[in-house]
Design a protein that fits this description.
Keywords: Cell membrane, Membrane, Phosphate transport, Transmembrane, Transmembrane helix, Transport. The protein is mainly α. It contains twelve helices and two strands, in the order ααββαααααααααα. Strands 1-2 form a two-stranded antiparallel ribbon.
């Protein structure tokens, strides 16, 4: 009995140590990012960084404006979500409620494989196939646009949205479905008036996590969006080349002199990206907890 309690305490201590190590690593990442990021504000003000309209880090009159990078990331991510959410939710409803069990079991592994494809492969596919198609279809000077990046990021976000939405829909108590059908509702009425509203919190969490997946992507957007640090025009911004925050860090960090203002500006961009991603994950986690509470 003593040995059993000792083993349980040991296992508990190991698991606690691993969890604590995760928190420590996150805390160290925050220090690492914010320490170098804040050093930028010795050369420029925080307001100029957050509201600046130009990103010219190597010119004589250096300007480190976040707005072109922020709006580029926002436009590409919003386009990806608009593309992925309807397809993802429709696919989740089909797999969970409509498809034959054998068909559903056949489709799920392909969705998981799609989630495991490296981002550079998606980027190469977009560069070779989608970029020429967008250029020809819309008669553009280049196919490397925000639209191309949105479509590719939407494809990459689909597995996350489909998987979590399908789990949420499958977790809806069968009594709700049976009660709706017993009251005379059709199958489609049951789906969109009973099942989807009951799973809405889980579906919302799937959308938020898909958004986090899209906004944090680097290689794909770097290969297909054109990497032009300008504020997208309205309303035709989807057809403009853009540059995202992640692509800026990936493109410039390898060549920037360490300790320079440009170096610290990239860390400041990374700090903003870290805060945005953290907020998205916290919102998604809150939504998931509310969903679990309602299901229980």
């Amino acid at each position: 009995m003593f040995n059993r309690k000792y083993k349980e305490k040991s296992i508990e201590s190991v698991l606690f140590s691993i969890s604590a190590l995760t928190v420590v690593i996150l805390f160290l990442i925050c220090i690492f990012l914010f320490r170098d990021g804040f050093l930028l504000f010795k050369a420029t003000s925080l307001l100029d960084f957050l509201t600046g309209k130009f990103w010219y880090p190597t010119s004589v009159n250096r300007q480190f404006g976040l707005l072109p990078l922020f709006f580029g990331s926002l436009l590409v991510t919003a386009g990806a979500i608009l593309f992925a959410v309807p397809l993802g939710i429709a696919s989740a409803i089909y797999i969970s409620e409509i498809a034959h069990p054998k068909v559903a079991d056949f489709l799920k592994p392909f969705i998981e494989v799609l989630a495991g494809i490296p981002s550079v492969v998606f980027g190469f596919f977009g560069l070779v196939v989608l970029v020429p198609f967008v250029r020809t279809a819309f008669n553009l000077p280049t196919g490397q646009t925000a639209l191309t990046g949105s479509i590719m990021l939407g494809i990459m976000a689909l597995p996350t949205i489909i998987t979590i939405s399908e789990d949420a829909i499958s977790s809806v108590p069968s009594a709700l479905k049976q009660g709706s059908l017993a009251l005379g509702a059709t199958r489609w009425q049951t789906i969109y008036r009973v099942i989807v509203p009951a799973a809405l919190s889980g579906i919302s969490a799937a959308i938020m996590l898909g958004m986090g997946r899209a906004i944090g992507e680097t290689m794909t957007v770097m290969m297909v969006t054109g990497n032009t640090a300008i504020i997208p025009s309205f309303p035709g911004g989807l057809f403009d080349p853009v540059r995202t925050m992640t692509a800026t860090i990936a493109l410039e960090m390898g060549e920037v002199p360490q300790g320079s203002a440009h170096f610290h500006a990239l860390f400041a961009v990374g700090s903003v990206l870290f805060i945005i991603t953290l907020l998205i994950n916290l919102i998604a986690d809150s939504i998931k907890k509310r969903y679990r509470f309602k299901v229980d």
